[in-house]
């Protein structure tokens, strides 16, 4: 069967207008009905490739990569400061499906900064957080909370390293009181030390050491005593709040 090439001249005018109106490739600035403007690459009427979006209402700007109408790839998001009318960088890093993803750096309004991994707009994975107070946390995150193993160094020189859950110290950890020259090592529950040992640590080099050193403990097996204390505490917690205890409608 012979093949006949269809010419654009033989197509209806309505079809030609639709084809002409479709946005593909590099275009000049396109304005939306709501006043937003986009300059960059298109594919099948969707932002695709590299481009810059300006939101009229907030004045915010995104400059980076797009995929099928959503921010995807590497890009920088900046906001307009109403006081100075200048732009401040808010986030630069990876995006996926319109959300912060993989590695990126976020700048908060109060001078705090986070750099690390993201997942669906949440700090998740490994990351380092610089707080306004001067404290620095470095470690694992899950949905914007310290979760896993991590170290937090406080502005006064003290630091904690160990396990975290839901943004609080949970599990085994060590707290270094560098100002007093002491070390607490033990088990934590929701940010509170429950059982452990307190010993001198670089006491002679501490700026404000305690008046007297901690006397040594003479136990046959100190770690065994700690493990038994932890087990007893966990058993008490589990008996008070059993995992299969489902509240009723009357509670």
Quick rundown:
By secondary structure, this protein is mainly β. It is built from two helices and 15 strands. The protein folds into two domains: 22-95, Single Sheet (Histone H3 K4-specific methyltransferase SET7/9 N-terminal domain), CATH 2.20.110; 108-231, Histone H3 K4-specific methyltransferase SET7/9 N-terminal domain, CATH 2.20.110.
General description of the model:
This protein has 251 residues and is mainly beta. The chain folds into two domains: 22-95, Histone H3 K4-specific methyltransferase SET7/9 N-terminal domain; 108-231, Histone H3 K4-specific methyltransferase SET7/9 N-terminal domain (Single Sheet), CATH 2.20.110.10. Helix content is 11%, strand content 50%. The protein contains two helices and 15 strands. The protein has helices at residues 13-21, 222-240, and strands spanning 25-31, 37-43, 46-54, 61-67, 70-80, 87-96, 99-107, 113-119, 122-130, 136-142, 145-153, 159-165, 168-177, 182-189, 192-200. Strands 1-2-3-4-5-6-7-8-9-10-11-12-13-14-15 form a 15-stranded antiparallel beta sheet, covered by helices on one side. The protein is elongated, with a radius of gyration of 29 Å. Mean pLDDT is 83; it is low at 1-8, 14-21 and 243-251.
What number is the mean pLDDT?
83
Low-confidence spans: pLDDT under 50, at least 5 residues? Answer: 1-8, 14-21, 243-251
Q: Give the name of the CATH architecture of the largest domain.
A: Single Sheet
Sheet having the most strands: 15 strands, antiparallel
The helix content is: 10-25%
Backbone structural class: mainly beta
Which percent band covers the strand fraction? Answer: over 45%
Total number of distinct structural domains: 2
Number of helices: 2
């Amino acid at each position: 069967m012979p093949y006949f090439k269809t010419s654009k001249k033989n197509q209806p005018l309505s079809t030609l207008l639709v084809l002409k109106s479709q946005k593909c490739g590099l275009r000049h600035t396109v304005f939306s009905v709501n006043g937003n403007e986009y300059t960059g690459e298109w594919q099948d009427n969707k932002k695709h490739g590299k481009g810059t979006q300006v939101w009229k209402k907030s004045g915010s700007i995104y400059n980076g990569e797009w995929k099928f109408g959503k921010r995807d790839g590497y890009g920088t998001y900046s906001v307009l400061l109403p006081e100075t009318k200048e732009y401040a960088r808010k986030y630069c890093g990876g995006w996926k499906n319109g959300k912060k993803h993989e590695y990126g750096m976020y700048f908060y309004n109060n001078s705090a900064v986070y750099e690390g991994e993201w997942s669906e707009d949440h700090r998740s994975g490994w990351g380092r957080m610089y707080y306004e107070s001067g404290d620095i946390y470095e470690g694992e995150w899950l949905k914007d909370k310290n979760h896993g193993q991590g170290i937090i160094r406080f502005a006064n020189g003290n630091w904690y390293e160990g396990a975290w859950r839901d943004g609080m110290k949970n599990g085994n950890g060590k707290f270094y009181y560098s100002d007093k020259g002491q070390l607490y090592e033990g088990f934590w529950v929701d940010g509170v030390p429950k059982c452990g040992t307190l010993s001198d640590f670089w006491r002679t080099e501490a700026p404000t050491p305690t008046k007297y050193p901690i006397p040594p403990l003479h136990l046959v097996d100190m770690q065994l005593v700690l493990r038994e204390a932890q087990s007893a505490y966990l058993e008490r917690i589990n008996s008070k709040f059993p995992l299969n205890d489902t509240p009723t409608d009357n509670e």
